[in-house]
Amino acid sequence: MARLVVVADTHLPRRAKDLPAPVWAAVEAADVVAHAGDWCDEATVLALRARSARLVGVAGNNDGPDVRGHLEETATFTLEGVRFGLVHETGGRAGRERRCDAAWAGAVDVLLFGHSHVPWDSTTPRGLRLLNPGSPTDRRRQPACTWLELDVSGGRVAGATWHEVPPRVGTAQR
Questions:
Q1: pLDDT in tens, 35-57
Q2: Which stretch of DSSP H or E encloses residue 56?
Q3: Beta strand 110-112 with 32-35: parallel, antiparallel or unpaired?
Q4: pLDDT at 167 over 80
Q5: All structural domains of the chain with their residue ranges
Q6: 2-165 classified as CATH 3.60.21.10
Q7: How many whole angstroms separate alpha carbon 79 and alpha carbon 11?
Q8: Beta strands in 68-113 (DSSP E)
Q9: Whole-model pTM?
Q10: C-alpha distances in Å from residue 28, one per residue of 3, 21, 57, 78
Q11: Are the C-beta atoms of 4 and 32 separated by less than 8 Å?
């Protein structure tokens, strides 16, 4: 069994000064960490890389040249026989499954994405699972900031858990 921690839309240091302590603890315990874009500073890329056993990340629409120098727009990786795709943006909620099927079905089993700050879990008609962790630092109109942990084993995602981050000083709560 492998543990995959998924975060997106950290927006550091604008939305928060740092990642919440429970997120750092999960990062340090994970086998793989995936970040689906909008890091917003190179220091976050370097810190996650230093504190992760393995980091896979992509650039988001708010990431500048300093972040983009380390990352591509999309990434793929395999963990315990499950093929993952990673991208920042999949477009609006309406038609998401159709668009993702057209772009990713057959190439990956699970597509991890960010951008909306809204936790998401759906499966396309072709069987592609779509997952968004939300944001651990900017909840927008959600009840809480969130991040995602996946247990991956035997060629499947054995468990998916969204964790809520309690509100704290320095975390955007708009």
A1: 999 999 999 999 999 999 999 99
A2: strand 55-57
A3: unpaired
A4: no
A5: 2-165
A6: yes
A7: 27
A8: 74-79, 82-87, 110-112
A9: 0.94
A10: 11, 11, 16, 20
A11: yes
